[in-house]
Amino acid sequence: MSLLSGISKESVIGTAVLGCVFAAGLWAGSRQSSSHTGFQGAKNTVLGSNNVLLQYMLENSLREHPSLKKIRLKTVEHPYHFMMVACEQAQLMANLAKLIKTKKALEVGVYTGYNTLNMALLLPDDGKVVACDVNEEYANIGKPIWKEAGVEHKIDLRIKEAVQTLDELLAAGEAETFDFAFIDADKESYDHYYEKCLKLIRKGGIIAIDNVLLGGRVLNRTNDICGQVLHDLNQKILRDHRVNMSELCPLPPDLNSSGCVAEQLILCKALEYFRCQGITYRKNFQVKHKPQKVGITDPCSTHRIQQGCFMALHSPACPAGVCIGTEAQGCYYLAYRGRL
Fold first, then answer.
1. What is the pLDDT of residue 215?
2. I need a labelling partner for 302 at 20 to 30 A (CA). Which of 45, 132, 316, 325 fits?
3. Gap between the Cα atoms of 172 and 157, Å rounded
4. What is the pLDDT of residue 271?
5. In whole angstroms, how far apart are CA 226 and each of 65, 161, 221, 231, 233?
6. What is the number of other CB atoms lying within 10 angstroms of the CB of residue 140?
7. Quick one: which of 286, 330, 290 has its CA closest to 307?
8. pTM higher than 0.70 for the full model?
9. Residue 201's Cα: distance from chain center in Å?
């Protein structure tokens, strides 16, 4: 990975995004094809999993709030339970939202409200989630649990076409006021959602887009409108200089017990630039300035990533705002603190 002197904060955070996945054993999962949407045994999951290693990963990485578990178990009983966001994916997004100190979130697609609650729980008391959906019947499954969790006042549920809600927010002068957006609704409209969310998200904010592989349909797009739309969006985001992006890799086929192609989650961070303030070496919770220890030829230009092993941390001990250090076996620890 190369970071120039005009380093972008989102490049560092993008690396931290990958760190959350690899170090914690989290994999952004499918809601249509993949089976890993829960943990602690198939009886407690939405779809369950027969893969022992995957179950181990989930059992040793997930911290699910009791209210989230209630919604998940209620969703199990629903015929469209596969539409629910994977709980490990929700946890990843929650950690990212915390990392950028999210106060205002946007959700395009609610279903039973699992991720709506997930976001509301992490927001400050005066924070807000604008949740867009067309089906109030599904949302009613989660509503009582939102109230029980004490976060109902943070959730602004709007039952109408999401494009209409997004246009209303823009017309109301709320452009660049949201910190985090999650898109998981009708696939034909993904490009419209992406463009409108990009206008609503502040510089440095994050847009997470689910189901971007669509169960492998992006590879066989003949007479498949949704597959073509997702393929076009993937290509567009890859070349979109307005954002920095990361696609989180799903389980490889040999680890996916269902034999299906798992989904990917695209994370886009709206560009915001700052000057490089140097590199802080972090070892045993001691902060020392030793950039030469982390394989950096120029602290403000080039960072060498070793072995792809990362961990994302939030460390108030980092005075510069960004810590990049090394531990055993070339693992990097990244921490982000506020704006520089």
1. 83
2. 316
3. 17
4. 63
5. 34, 18, 8, 9, 11
6. 12
7. 330
8. no
9. 14
Q: Residues 101-130, buried b or exposed e (16+ Cβ, 10 A)?
A: ebebbbbbbbbbbbbbbbbbbbbeeebbbb
Q: Is the Cβ–Cβ distance between 186 and 82 less than 8 Å?
A: no
Q: What is the pLDDT of residue 264?
A: 60
d(CA 201, CA 185): 18
Output the pLDDT for position 24.
Answer: 25
AA identity, residue 52: V
Q: Which domains does the chain have, with CATH numbers?
A: 31-270 (3.40.50.150), 281-336 (no CATH)
What the block records as the tokens of 59 is 């059992």
**Token pair for residue 206?**
């994050």
Residue 68 is predicted with a pLDDT of 97
Encoded tokens for 154 = 């943070």
Flag residues of the chain having pLDDT under 70: 1-50, 249-264, 271-340
Inter-residue contact 35 to 72 (CB < 8 Å): no
Decide if 26 contacts 256 (C-beta within 8 A): no
Q: Using CA atoms in the order 199, 202, 205, 206, what is the torsion angle rounded to 10 degrees?
A: -20
Q: Regarding beta strands 322-326 and 332-336, do their DSSP bridges make them parallel or antiparallel, or are they unpaired?
A: antiparallel
| Strand partners of residue 248 | 265
DSSP letter at 298 equals: B
